[in-house]
Amino acid sequence: MTLPRSSINALRSNLDRALSAKDPAAIATAVDVPLRNTNVIGGPSGGNSSSTSGSVHREQLKVDGVDWSNVLNYLLDVHLAIASNDLASTYEAQSSLHSALNHNLSSTKGNWLIPGIHTVCRNTHRTAALADEYVNRNAGTRNDHKRLQSAVTLLQASYSKTLNDRVELRPNEPLSEEGSKKVGVLYIVNQLFSMYFQLNTLRLCKNLLKPVESRSIHESGTMGEMVTYRYYVGRLNMFEDQYELAEQNFDYALKHCHKSSVANKKRILNYLIPVKLLRGRLPTNKLLEKYSLYEFVPLLNGMRTGNLMEFSDGLMKNQDLFIRRGTYLLLEKCKMICYRNLFKRIWKIVGTEQIKLDYIAASFKWLGMPIDLDEVECILANLIFKSFIRGYLSHAKRVLVLSKKDPFPTAKVSHVLKWRRACLGGMQVVDSDDAEVMDNMIEREWSIYCKNNQIVPKSDATSVAEESQEELKTVVEHKVEGKDKEIPEVLTTACSCLAELNDVTANEATAILASYAKGNQVVADVYETYMQDGDTDTFLSMLRVVAPTLAQHEEEDFKQLLREAFQHFVEDESFRAVDLAALRLAAVRKDKLLISSLLDFKNDDDVNALNANLLVHG
To answer: What pLDDT does residue 579 have?
Structure first.
């Protein structure tokens, strides 16, 4: 059985004209098949069309000395299988067509055949998935992906032939007989990503990433191809627990997705929202309503209010949906933020830093989720370990003791400094030990952050909070004139942030920078460790720990300097009793002029300059 002669002549004529003119768009149209316009998706399998043994058609077609007979005959077989409502035969014919076009791709120069390859790749993927779905439905099975697995081999052959083309890829170059076949790589990679995710063989995705990204092919496709690529790479990052990279890729995909592609934006948000939830960033209700993402509403309400019951009910209600997407375990991790907000509400109600675990257990019971005190301790220990809560547990007294200073940190500083893994440039800087570029990047990003975020109100007693980062650095440089090391901007930024958030005092912030400049090994080790592993939380925690000790040492040095100076003042007849009293009062108040003069005296040992400076301004 073959197609009617009129249909054969029409298909042959279309393909012949397109190949003769080397028209990429016409070729893509000629090799396309009307799967969307038939009932082949739900039709019964007749099994009376083409087979893998060969085509049932025997047409001949040569264009410019190249034999296209196999391409034409298998294309006719595909149309015949569709007309026969036969899914299995449709895939067999489509796979033969794909193989024939792959063969001819190798024998043609230029990239004018690429749109046709893309069309065939898409149809091979779709027919394989539809055929497997139909077979599984009829046989009552779920995991028969025989045809999709064989389709992967065909697309891998197309990928290899386009990637290994020796002609150099030039972005935005028109399709021609001199162009590079590499222009077709990214579309095929996206199709393979989709198939790997369907087959749950994510390990194979890695085989595609390195060749594509090492040659920057992922940056030279069409906007649609680049958005799709970022979407799949973001999903891959998510499954590998690389949430910062996942968020970066999903953000790019959402931002550059076409404004009318509502369905695609919704697909991206299905994964972007869970990643952002885990990182403590909640979407607005308006966004959820716009894209009908109502499955996230109970989760968001539960996280905002600390209502564990609402969060757990919402997670359980949509469990199957989240499992199919692969986001269930990710959303399960968001329960830690829900715990944190619940305990924060309890702390506000109790009004003290010491909270009995009985109170927490009572709140769980009131929510309809009774747990014992040991489980409460376990939850709190995890929250403290992950820095969601600052404090410690007294097991003997069954009490949670919270820090008096910001017991439930909002991690504003972490949002500013955490880009080592989120920024490719930052990763290259760390690997090459190019600290100057990293410092400039962080200084620039911190200034942008300050313009767009309201910082914790500044205290009048905190001089560092009143000074800009540059002024702070100037003060320290003056204090340690003749210093051994230049102070990196990342360290200045961190100290300034800690001071503004009242995590350290003004003197402690200054002491950290001064100690680093003097060559203190402890501060140097803390800074070098951060530059190597990029762990912001550990970096800031270590600075908080060492700050009091460093400040104490600085204070002792200052007092010793003060004692030596006043011994000189008493012996010097230029200073009257009223002058000495004023100097003592200035020392108690830590007057800036006095401190500056003493530091100058320490550096240059010029008694006359010290006397003149203090007496003139006294």
So the answer is: 56
pLDDT value, residue 56: 81
Residue 507 near residue 551 (C-beta atoms within 8 A): yes
The label of the residue with tokens 């009572």 reads 362
Strands 391-394, 399-402: pairing kind? antiparallel
The DSSP string of 170-218 is -TTPPP-SSS-GGGGHHHHHHHHHHHHHHHT-GGGGHHHHHHHHHTTGG
- CA dist 359 and 377 (Å) reads 12
pLDDT for 37: 42
Q: Residue 342 and residue 531: Cα distance in Å, rounded?
A: 35
Closest-CA residue to 334 (of 376, 301, 366, 371): 301
Nearest residue to 391 via CA among 405, 407, 376: 407
Q: What are 190-230's pLDDT values in tens digits?
A: 999 999 999 999 999 988 998 999 888 998 889 999 999 99
Pair 367, 308: CB distance under 8 Å: yes
Q: Are the C-beta atoms of 244 and 272 separated by less than 8 Å?
A: no
Give the global pTM. 0.64
Do 306 and 341 touch, CB atoms closer than 8 A?
yes
Q: Which tens digit of pLDDT belongs to each residue from 422-480?
A: 333 333 333 333 444 444 444 444 444 444 444 333 333 333 334 444 445 444 444 44
The per-residue DSSP string of 324-338 comes to HHT-HHHHHHTHHHH
CB 175 within 8 A of CB 112: yes
Contacts with 434 (C-beta within 8 Å, 6 or more apart), sequence order:
428
* Residue 394 phi, psi dihedral angles, 5° rounding: -105, 100
Rounded distance between C-alpha atoms, residue 121 and residue 410, angstroms: 48
Q: Identity (one letter) of the amino acid at 93?
A: A
Instruction: Look at residues 330, 456, 337, 333 and name the one whose alpha carbon lies nearest to residue 388.
Output: 337
Span 39-57, pLDDT tens digits: 444 454 444 444 445 778 8
Q: Are 184 and 117 in contact (CB under 8 A)?
A: yes
d(CA 69, CA 61): 5
Element (H, E) at 514: helix 506-517
Nearest to 512 by CA among 537, 482, 535, 485: 485
Per-residue pLDDT band at 499 (split at 50, 70, 90): confident
d(CA 466, CA 473): 13
Q: What's the rounded Cα separation, in Å, for the pair 250 and 272?
A: 6
Amino acid identity for residue 247 in this structure = E
DSSP 8-state symbol, 372: -
